[in-house]
Amino acid sequence: MKKQQLRGQNAAVTGASSGIGRATALALAGQGVNLALIARNRERLEAVAEEARALGVRAEVFVADTTDEAAVKAAVEGALERFGRLDIFHCNAGIYLRCPARDLTMEQIRHMFETNFYGTLRCTYAVLPHFIRQGRGTLVVTVSMDGKKGVPPDAAYVATKFALNGFMQVLRQELRGTGVRVVTVFPSRTDTPQIEFVDCPAVTAKVSPQRVAEAIVRAVAGRKKEVMVPAGACRLLVWADAVSPSLGDWMIRAFRLDGRENGKPPVEEKGLNR
């Protein structure tokens, strides 16, 4: 499927108010895809909706927290009611915590899983029956390169992303023959508000949300199963770690893939008090 063939399709995007979610929504809108925008902040969602409508597509706003199963179901049902069908669902909502493993609390770990892992599954199970009934649909899941190779000091975040990667690998295989596709997305550190308080050296500079979004659109149109951004550097790390975990660990240290905190406050998230 070429990009032009996406025109007229309907997509839902969670975490659509900022970062990768916002960029993906607008990239899809640029290809003529109508949007159901889902996130917790109505004001920011409405701003994204206006940008999308200016590109000539329909855009509807649904306020929901992915930790709330009833709210997720209501958002998906509302989108189906307004659009008649969904062709693409981008599970993107997530939170980030930078904290060494030895300092984590069980409450923090549970909260990370509740949002990043279970939140994604709530969305998946809300839309999957619809996709299966209509015999087609594309489920896009933002994982992270942290779901391929763990980077300190992100232990709780890494755990949620490895869990997502494993679950979606199995789901992708089980859905073979149904017409429903799973696309997993593995961005490296991305220039979003979540990690504004982390600086990365030039050699491993943050990628832009727009670059990730364009890769997602190409993956959906090109029927890819996985996409890494930036592709070359990410594949090199995965290959190095497969050859030798020690080599993978060395690359993280040598290229300072962990980044450095710059003194700015991290995004406040209830349940992740540091």
Structure description:
This protein has 274 residues and is α/β, with parallel strands linked by helices. The protein has a single domain, classed as Rossmann fold (3-Layer(aba) Sandwich). The chain has helices at 19-30, 42-53, 69-83, 106-134, 155-174, 209-222, 231-243, 245-254; strands at 10-14, 34-39, 59-63, 88-91, 137-142, 180-187, 198-199, 226-229, 260-261. The strands form two sheets. It has a seven-stranded parallel sheet, sandwiched between helices. β5, α5 (155-174) and β6 (180-187) form a beta-alpha-beta unit. α1 (19-30) packs parallel to α2 and α4 (106-134) runs parallel beside α5. The longest helix is centred in the middle third of the chain and has 29 residues, at 106-134. 45% of the residues are buried. The model has no long low-confidence stretch (mean pLDDT 96).
